[in-house]
Amino acid sequence: MSLELFATVFGIVFVAELPDKTALAALVLATRHKPLAVFLGSALALSVQSVVAVAAGSLLAQLNRTYVELGSGLLFLGCAVAMALRKQDDDDDGKGDEKAAGFFKSMWMSFLVIFVAEWGDLTQIGTAALQARYASWATVLLGSVAALWAVSGIAVIVGHRAAKVLNPRVTKLVASVVFAVVGVVLIVGALRHF
Fold first, then answer.
1. How far apart are CA 1 and CA 54, in angstroms?
2. CA distances from 34 to 10, 54, 110, 120, 131 (A)
3. Which residues contact 139 (CB under 8 A, 6 or more apart)?
4. Distances, alpha carbon 49 to alpha carbons 53, 99, 174, in Å
5. Fewer CB in a 10 Å sphere around the end CB: N or C, the chain?
6. Average pLDDT, the chain
7. What 8-state DSSP symbol labels residue 33?
8. Which has more pLDDT, 66 or 33?
9. Contact 10, 147 (CB under 8 A)
10. CA atoms of 121 and 178, how far apart (whole Å)
11. Helices and strands (H and E) in the chain: how many
C-alpha cells in the first residue's frame, strides 16, 4: 500500500465530504439519536458505498445523476416528515431489550439515510475515479473509508453536542426543516434535468 496514495485519497475525499449532504445528515441524526448508533450506522453505510465505488470503478460515474438525486430528495423529504411526526424518543427511558431495540433502530435508520444520501455522491464518484486512475483497490478503499469515517465522526460529535444545549423540540423542528430543505434542493436539481 502506498502511503502517498492513501494520503491523497484521504485528503480528496475528506475535503469533498465536509460540506456534503451526507455529513449534514449524520449531524442532524446525531441530534436525535444516540451518537454511537448514528456513527456505526453511518460508518457501515459509507463503507458499503466505498466498496461499491471501488468495485464499480469508472462505471459508477456513468449512473444517471437525475434519478439518484430525485430518489435521495424523496428520501430526505420522507425523513423530514417522519422526524416531524415522531413522538419524543424513549431510548433513554427504556431498559434492557427496549434500550437495545432503540439503539439498533437508530443504527438501522442512520444506515439507510446515509446509504441513500451517499449513492452517486461526489465522493463516491470521486472514489470510483481514483480507483480507475490508480488501480489500487485496497489503498483507494482504505483512504476513502478513513476519510468518510473521519467526517462522519466529526458530524456526529457536533450534532450530539448541539443536542445537549438545544431544546429537544427545537432540535426536532430544525432537523425536520434541514432534511426537508435538502430534499427539496435535491428534487429541484433533479427536475432541472428533465
1. 15
2. 27, 30, 10, 27, 34
3. 1, 2, 5, 6, 9
4. 6, 28, 27
5. C
6. 79
7. S
8. 33
9. yes
10. 18
11. 8, 0
